[in-house]
């Protein structure tokens, strides 16, 4: 039955589905670690983290809805048809089977399962068996995309929030030290807001927002809303609700991390911090609760990612492979990559994220404010070209040092540090993007002038 808007119950369910797809293990690990690093400077750090870990992902979902696009390819094709195909494949493979989906399984194993096994168990064999079960479940749910709201919104989300709530409440009621009395890490002594911006990138949610847009739109259509304008409005409403819940949890987990400095030194990563906090407050039960929480968080994110990737590739390459085949292929490939280990996945994912984040953010902003320049293709083209040119230097900088030296990229990084403003803050792409905007607008103005004299 057609309807002009969702009921409150439906809107909350869509928001819960979106939250469930966004909020994975990385969304727990990064803020807890951030809290330990930021210490008493947690307020500016929290603001910076929420800007990139909440604000930009919601912009991505809103960009899909606002332009009435039926997916990332349609949106990216405003730059050019070939670019639309290229960027869509690159982004979905990054947040899909190459990095994000394998990271879900490996993070849940490393953080939640491995601490319970001890040294007597073969780690590689245990990871192999765990990831096999993990991806079997992810595939089972993903093969029924019409039920994604049921699986994530009604079943997995409540279980995840229940176990997470136990951990957070236990830690906040008995803090190790007052948060504002803790000493920040040297990297957060000053400029905590800008330092935290790049921490938010690690969640991968900024680019996932572009990918999840199509899933949310399909869910809303299944609920009876068919008009594009109404769908765009509901996408934005649901995105805001999901963002508020994410921000609330981020604030609590960052605070939990800062307060833990009274008990532990800043850990190497948030997974270790979570294990320490859980064990301290809840003992052996805490380790089990952490394992369940992390596994549920990763599982629901994997379901959303496999579903998004399979639906998108089926649409991009019609009459090639069916949705089921794509889902099986992506799940199997993710299983293989996950067994490379968490450290290896992170090591190679960071440079790729630094490469594609800037053009993804630029595309979102162009889509949201495109009505002011009539979505002119020249503007999209020049902003994208200039942004990619700058993000290449971020890619070079994020590569392992030995690769920089091997390919003589260290000289290019030094050059960017000297001449590219805000490069040290990982924001070196901003001024080139503005330059591209100016060039695109000048081309648009010239076109209008020629048309006027024609």
UniProtKB/TrEMBL annotation:
It is found in: Cell membrane. The chain crosses the membrane at residues 12-30, 42-64, 85-105, 125-143, 155-173, 201-220, 240-265, 285-309, 321-342, 348-367, 379-399, 419-443. Its main location: membrane. It comes from the Bacteria. It is a multi-pass membrane protein. Keywords: Amino-acid transport, Cell membrane, Membrane, Transmembrane, Transmembrane helix, Transport. Pfam families: Branch_AA_trans. Component of the transport system for branched-chain amino acids. Belongs to the branched chain amino acid transporter family. This is Branched-chain amino acid transport system carrier protein. It comes from Ventrimonas faecis. The lineage of its organism: Bacteria, Bacillati, Bacillota, Clostridia, Lachnospirales.
């Amino acid at each position: 039955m057609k309807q002009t808007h969702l009921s409150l119950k439906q809107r909350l369910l869509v928001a819960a589905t979106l939250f469930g797809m966004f909020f994975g293990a990385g969304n727990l690990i990064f803020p807890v670690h951030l809290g330990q690093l930021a210490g008493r400077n947690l307020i500016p750090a929290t603001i910076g983290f929420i800007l990139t870990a909440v604000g930009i992902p919601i912009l991505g979902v809103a960009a899909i809805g606002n332009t009435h696009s039926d997916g990332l390819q349609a949106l990216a094709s405003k730059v050019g048809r070939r670019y639309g195909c290229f960027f869509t494949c690159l982004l979905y493979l990054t947040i899909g089977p190459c990095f994000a989906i394998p990271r879900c399984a490996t993070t849940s194993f490393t953080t939640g399962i491995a601490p319970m096994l001890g040294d007597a168990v073969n780690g590689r064999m245990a990871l192999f068996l765990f990831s096999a079960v993990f991806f079997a479940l992810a595939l089972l749910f993903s093969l029924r995309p019409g039920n994604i709201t049921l699986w994530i919104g009604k079943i997995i989300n409540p279980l995840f929030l229940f176990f997470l709530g136990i951990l957070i409440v236990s830690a906040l009621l008995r803090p190790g030290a007052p948060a504002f009395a803790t000493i920040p890490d040297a990297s957060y002594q000053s400029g905590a807001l800008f330092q935290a911006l790049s921490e938010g990138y690690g969640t991968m949610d900024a680019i996932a927002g572009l990918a999840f847009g199509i899933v949310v739109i399909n869910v809303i259509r299944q609920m009876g809303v068919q008009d594009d304008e109404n769908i765009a409005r509901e996408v934005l409403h649901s995105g805001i609700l999901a963002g508020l819940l994410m921000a609330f949890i981020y604030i609590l987990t960052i605070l939990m991390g800062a307060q833990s400095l009274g008990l532990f030194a800043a850990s190497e990563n948030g997974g270790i911090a979570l294990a320490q906090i859980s064990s301290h407050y809840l003992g052996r039960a805490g380790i089990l609760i952490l394992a369940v929480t992390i596994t549920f968080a990763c599982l629901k994110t994997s379901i959303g990612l496999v579903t998004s990737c399979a639906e998108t590739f089926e649409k991009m390459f019609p009459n090639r492979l069916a949705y089921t085949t794509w889902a099986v292929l992506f799940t199997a490939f993710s299983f293989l990559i996950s067994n490379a280990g968490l450290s290896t996945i992170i090591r190679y994912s960071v440079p790729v994220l630094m490469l594609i984040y800037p053009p993804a953010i630029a595309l979102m902003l162009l889509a949201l404010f495109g009505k002011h320049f009539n979505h002119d293709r020249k503007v999209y083209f020049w902003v994208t070209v200039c942004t990619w040119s700058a993000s290449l230097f971020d890619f070079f900088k994020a590569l392992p040092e030995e690769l920089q030296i091997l390919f003589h990229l260290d000289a290019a990084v030094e050059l960017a540090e000297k001449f590219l403003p805000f490069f040290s803050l990982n924001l070196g792409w901003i001024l080139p993007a503005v330059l591209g905007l100016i060039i695109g607008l000048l081309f648009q103005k010239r076109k209008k002038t020629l048309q006027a004299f024609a």
